[in-house]
Amino acid sequence: MGDKKRFTSSRKLDHLRICAENEVESGDAGFGDIRFIHNAMPECDMGKIDLSTRFLDHRFDSPLFISAMTGGHPRTKEVNARLARMAERFGIGMGVGSQRAALENPQLADTFTVVRDEAPHAFLVANLGAVQLRDHGNEWAARAVEQIEADAIAIHLNFLQEAIQPEGDHNATGCLAAIESLCADTTVPVIVKETGCGISGTTAWQCWGVGVRAIEIGGWGGTSWAAVESVRAGESRNAHDKRLKSLGTEFSDWGIPTVVSLAEVLATGGPVIASGGIRTGMDIAKCLALGADLCGMALPLLKPALESDEALAQQIEARHHELAVAMFLSGSGKIADLKKARMYIMGRTRQMIGKDNHVSTSR
Ligand SMILES: Cc1cc2nc3c(=O)[nH]c(=O)nc-3n(C[C@H](O)[C@H](O)[C@H](O)COP(=O)(O)O)c2cc1C
User: Model-level pTM?
Assistant: First the structure.
């Protein structure tokens, strides 16, 4: 195996280990600024709350979505298998991590194909970086889709991570054109996703304009790739990498909070997957009430996925239970009702999503 291919694969394992063993969350997604208006007369039966929903012409038993995480190193196969078994068991959607490593080295393909083996009926989302799409073209995207018989493909934007990681790609030119070409060429819907810095209304308009079918927010306030890469750089013996450690710390504060990003993107259209710092069923309820279609979680599912099927199932059931309680207390028997639930929006989030809050300097 060439050095580059080996690095792509071992980096995937580094990320998993660092996320599992270190404090890699930073910021405030904004959920604390949102309160449901309590419905003292809910007129629905909590035992009959219906969590089912639709997204991109598919039916889901619940709006919880397993956001992209892993694959691409032999030791990630079991983690992906576990996540996929849960996607199948709970009737929820799942994204796989970047398939780059397995496209560079087909010997790693089974770390991804296992997902379709374990989840024959689930809505699965393939994953590729925008930079890899630009550099390798639509053929790589087609192979990624084929590898897991995907129902959609997510193209991830992760330029904060690229800016901080020692081997990062610092040239972001040509990515929008590559996404446009993919949208015109592919048989499955294209989703654009961020990975922890959020998507602005302006970026959303660019995406819809080139034919993107859905956006995953990946907002600030959950897993921080600045923090992850800062830990990784700190583990390096190389002096330049060590300097990147403080850069990562500095930029762990960079990004659009999830709730703000969600409001901005929803103002431009949809469908939208909310993600980034979603930690409870109540967070999920808040995102749905704001207008999200699905709600993605990554880090909170990683730790139980490294442990056992049962630990992962318990985590998912606990989030579903919290969601059902929030729906009950807001008088929402089904997801469509929740979308009409009323909320107070306060504090910094209210300021940020208010009109006239963007400063632009004319030069
Ligand atoms: C260990 C780990 C690996 C990830 N790898 C990918 C990836 O390969 N591709 C991608 O689009 N997002 C990746 N993500 C980002 C997540 O999909 C998600 O956008 C982000 O972590 C925010 O969600 P969270 O706060 O619930 O973790 C990864 C996240 C984690 C925790």
Answer: 0.96
